[in-house]
User: Which sequence fits this backbone?
């Protein structure tokens, strides 16, 4: 026996709790207690139950911001204050965060001074500061030498004497911290910018460049000594007095003395000249000629051939600085030359002509030129393998100039047609 079929409901439609409108199956209903009238009006239609579709700006359902993306790369988001540059409407200038490169565009080594706050007078201030501090430091070194040593050679001519060479090297080594002081005070930049385009010494380059210097400059010095001995066999007198002390002074202080001269001539002086000249190539040529002349005059050469020999040395040092973007190759060239000169002069006798052309004339100059040219060529060929950096890292923080408005056209910085103009922190 089966149960009887239930009779269909024929009463009034059911209602929601607490007097809510009738519940219609399949219809969208507002939350319980919603005070809006029912059925909903045209402005109260429920959100359609369908997959999300891109809005008119191909973004979220409500669309992207009508004012578009940030006006330049790296600009802050709306409502976030910029971390650099002047704040609109105020005189406050926000500095870039620590570690930000000081250059808007990549710069070669000789134009490192041309940072965002470059001013033409900064190198002049640095040179004046260097001259004053370096002179005072030299006086202090000489006074300390007079008070602590017996009978030093004040004329600084016998450089095979250990005490004289030590005092001479110390008077030049103080140029390194003095150059760093000029960078910090006159330019407000890291002292490492005096070394390379990476604001530091690239130690990985010293060993490869030293090997190339020994293979080129070392061979040239050996030929020079052979020429000098052949022309003057009586010049070889054996090791000088205190040869052991001389070796100690040479290996401990001569590389630093060579580096100090490079920090001054191929470093700060060349960078100052390169900063004043807008064209990097023209600035490099002018800096090489001027600093090579000053370098040769600073050594007080006795004749034209020696002057020319040291002038060519300065040009070779400037060439490798340009090729490698730093002082490492020039420091190696200078240090290897000086160390070998003093070691050989101390071992064979001070009369052996190893660092000038006074004893053997133009032939020595020719050999030196060939050796220096070979070193420059070796450094140039090594760039493919060693890959030295030649320009600085940079981050362009310059706000772009507004686009020129086309007559009769829309304002490039104006609002999007049909959209309200939002309030932005940077204004128009």
Assistant:
């Amino acid at each position: 026996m089966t149960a009887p079929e239930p009779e269909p409901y024929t009463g009034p439609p059911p209602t929601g709790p607490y007097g809510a409108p009738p519940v219609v199956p399949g219809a969208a209903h507002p939350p319980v207690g919603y005070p809006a009238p029912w059925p909903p009006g045209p402005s109260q239609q429920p959100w359609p139950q369908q997959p999300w579709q891109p809005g008119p700006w191909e973004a979220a359902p409500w669309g992207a911001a009508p004012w578009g993306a940030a006006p330049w790369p790296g600009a802050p988001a709306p409502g976030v204050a910029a971390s650099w540059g002047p704040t609109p409407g105020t005189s406050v200038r926000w500095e870039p965060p620590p570690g930000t490169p000081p250059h808007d565009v990549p710069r070669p080594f000789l134009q490192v001074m041309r940072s965002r706050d470059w001013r033409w007078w900064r190198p002049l201030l640095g040179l004046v500061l260097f001259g004053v501090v370096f002179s005072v430091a030299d006086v202090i070194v000489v006074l300390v030498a007079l008070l602590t040593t017996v009978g030093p050679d004040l004329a600084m001519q016998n450089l095979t004497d250990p005490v004289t060479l030590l005092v001479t090297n110390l008077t030049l080594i103080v140029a390194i911290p003095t150059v760093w002081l000029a960078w910090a005070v006159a330019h407000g930049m890291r002292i490492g910018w005096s070394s390379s385009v990476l604001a530091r010494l690239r130690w990985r380059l010293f060993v490869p460049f030293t090997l190339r210097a020994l293979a080129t400059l070392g061979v040239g010095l050996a030929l020079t000594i052979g020429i000098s001995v052949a022309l003057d066999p009586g010049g070889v007198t054996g090791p000088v007095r205190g040869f052991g002390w001389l070796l100690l002074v040479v290996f401990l202080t001569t590389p630093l003395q060579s580096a100090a001269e490079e920090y001054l001539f191929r470093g700060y002086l060349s960078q100052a000249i390169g900063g004043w000249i807008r064209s990097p190539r023209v600035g490099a040529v002018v800096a090489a000629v001027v600093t090579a002349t000053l370098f040769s005059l600073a050594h007080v050469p006795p004749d034209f051939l020696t002057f020319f020999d040291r002038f060519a040395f300065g040009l070779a040092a400037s060439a490798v600085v340009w090729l490698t973007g730093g002082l490492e190759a020039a420091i190696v060239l200078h240090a290897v030359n000086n160390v070998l000169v003093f070691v050989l002069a101390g071992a064979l006798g001070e009369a052996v002509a190893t660092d000038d052309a006074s004893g053997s004339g133009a032939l020595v100059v020719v050999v030196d030129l060939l050796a220096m040219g070979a070193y420059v060529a070796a450094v140039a060929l090594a760039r493919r393998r060693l890959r030295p950096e030649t320009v600085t890292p940079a981050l362009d923080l310059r706000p772009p100039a507004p686009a020129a408005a086309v007559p009769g056209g829309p304002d490039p910085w104006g609002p999007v047609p049909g959209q309200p103009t939002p309030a932005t922190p940077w204004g128009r």
Remarks:
- The mean pLDDT is 80.
- The first strand starts at residue 85 and ends at 86.
- The two ends are 87 Å apart (CA to CA).
- Strands lie at 85-86, 93-94.
